[in-house]
Design goal:
single chain; six-stranded parallel sheet; TIM Barrel; 8 helices
Length: 203
């Protein structure tokens, strides 16, 4: 559970970040990291449309550069976009200056007030700088759709077992995830709708 739903102490590291939205509101916030890519994103967009669901895509700047038509399609279909750095940088592996410059380079293409750090980690100095400009969005539930040890059923069961009011749910539009998402995503959206959850995006 420490993986699927981050522990309280982990949330304390970034107290100004959004980890979960209103726990009194019967809604969830669907998010997708690491795209856009042609092998995955179109299927996700098609599935979201079938369930009349809007989501937030935290995009890697270099992918936006390579696939600008996918970026434009995401926006045209009414979804929200967020910054996930230009090169999918790990926050503890680079100088703060390098990390921030990479984030700003991505935002020249993405143009968003939302930011999610790759792997969910930033140094303290990176966090302090980024929170002044961006709304930092983490997650309440990570589906682990990227894990080679999990099946599509496991990904769906993570949604079913851990989704709750105000959950920020993280999927990935990536090559590692798409094989599982072709089954797990429609099942998850169907189940969430049956439970009465509304799909929302961030202000």
């Amino acid at each position: 559970m420490i993986i699927e739903q981050p522990a309280i102490w982990l949330r304390w590291l970034y107290p100004h970040a959004a980890w979960r939205m209103d726990h009194n509101d019967r809604s969830v916030y669907l998010t997708f990291d690491d795209g856009p890519i042609p092998e995955s994103t179109p299927f996700i967009l098609q599935t979201l449309a079938e369930f009349d669901a809007k989501a937030t895509f935290f995009m890697v700047g270099d992918n936006v550069r390579k696939y600008p038509d996918l970026y434009r399609r995401i926006v045209a279909e009414g979804h929200q976009v967020g910054n996930h750095t230009y090169h999918h940088l790990g926050g503890f592996k680079h100088l703060a200056k390098t990390y921030i410059e990479d984030t700003e380079r991505a935002n020249d293409l993405i143009g968003s007030h939302l930011f999610r750090p790759p792997h969910g980690c930033m140094s303290h100095s990176e966090y302090l700088w980024l929170k002044r400009k961006y709304r930092i969005v983490m997650w309440d539930l990570v589906t682990r759709d990227y894990s080679k040890w999990l099946t599509a059923d496991d990904v769906f069961n993570n949604v079913r077992n851990y989704a709750r009011n105000g959950s920020i749910i993280t999927f990935h539009d990536s090559l590692r995830s798409i094989g599982k998402l072709r089954t797990a995503l429609p099942r998850s959206l169907k189940w969430l709708k049956e439970q009465g959850y509304e799909f929302k995006t961030f202000e």
